[in-house]
Amino acid sequence: MKVERLSKTEGSGKVAKTICYYEKTIPKMRDGVFKSHFRLKRETVEVLMQKTSIECADRGLNIPVQKQLLITLWIYATPDSYRSVGDRFGVSVSSVCRVVHRITDCIFALSPTIIVWPTGQRLYSVIEGFRSLNGFHGVVGALDGTHIEIKAPKKHHSSYINRKDYHSVQLQAVCDNKLRFTSAFTGMPGSVHDERVYRLSPLAKNIDRKSIIFDADHHIIADAAYPLKNFLLTPFRDTGSLTVDEGNYNFKLSSTRMVIERSFGFLKGRFRRLIKFPSNNLKFVVKVVIVCCTLHNLCIDNDDAFIDCITDPNLVNERAENASNSDDSGISKRTRIASQL
């Protein structure tokens, strides 16, 4: 049986040996077992290889590109330490670190081509898909946010403590009716209010500069933590005196908006590193979060379903207050839609 010599184990002074997991075990894995470990089908990994092999060509590590990719996917998929992953794949801890950063950079470079706002025929397919869910017309996406727990950053760590008293960065995202992310923005400290996260996001800036244009009857849907706009519809505030139309509107908006909560659930169910990210390197955390969103989309595009959807306890919008800065056109549009549903 082939074995591979590893670097000396720290503190033991002994040279360890391991069965070549990559060379011997992985090729014999049943497809279901492979996916349970790496969270992607073999076919999806091949698609990813085609997109990243040139950029991630071996540069002195003497590790096959496919092996680099599988090491990185294992890191995303589990809370395992770099040391344990290195032991499994027969490489040093420092090599695991270099590999993960290299592959992360490669996939991150692909994100603008995979996380894209719907346009043309795809836009109308998304709108029809949302309408078929619950009869809510004109929806181009559902907006929400979630916390990614991290280690305390070295600088300004108190800013990253969220209302649940742990350090986090926020992921704000929009998804379509098929749970595919069409916008993703992360890195803002956990203490920052949802409305401010939105205001500082590329999504809001693109809308302001008309890079994203909404027809009069098209809109994003969100909960009450976001500002009510003509293009961003939120619920009526429930003070106990909602009309029948307003109550029905709130119900249908909430039911339709659940797709974004499911997107976050599948994202964190597939990539468990995002549940509790053991790093305070904010630049790296941001890249990995966006990379996982990118892989989430790639899986959907390649019919690579994942059934492990967790109930995300870290959604940012569990507060009851309504956001400020609502505008008259949004109020008027919401009232009109409520009367039509």
Protein topology:
Elements: E1 3-8, E2 15-19, H1 21-25, H2 31-38, H3 42-52, H4 65-77, H5 82-89, H6 93-114, H7 120-134, E3 139-150, E4 168-175, E5 181-189, H8 194-200, H9 202-208, E6 219-221, E7 232-233, H10 244-270, E8 276-277, H11 282-301, H12 328-340
Parallel strand pairs: 3-6, 3-8, 6-7
Antiparallel strand pairs: 1-2, 3-4, 4-5
Helix pairs in contact: 4-5, 4-6, 5-6, 6-11, 10-12
The run of helices and strands is: EEHHHHHHHEEEHHEEHEHH
Alpha carbon gyration radius: 22 Å
For the largest beta-sheet, the strand count, sense and barrel status come to: 6 strands, mixed
> Unreliable stretches, pLDDT < 50, 5 or more residues?
1-17
Can you walk me through this structure?
By secondary structure, the protein is an alpha/beta fold. It has 12 helices and 8 strands. It has helices at residues 21-25, 31-38, 42-52, 65-77, 82-89, 93-114, 120-134, 194-200, 202-208, 244-270, 282-301, 328-340, and strands at 3-8, 15-19, 139-150, 168-175, 181-189, 219-221, 232-233, 276-277. The strands form 2 sheets. Strands 3, 4, 5, 6, 7 and 8 form a 6-stranded mixed sheet that branches. α4 packs antiparallel against α5 (82-89) and α4 (65-77) packs across α6. The longest helix has 27 residues, at 244-270. The radius of gyration is 22 Å and the shape is globular. It starts with a strand and ends with a helix. Residues 1-17 have low confidence and may be disordered.
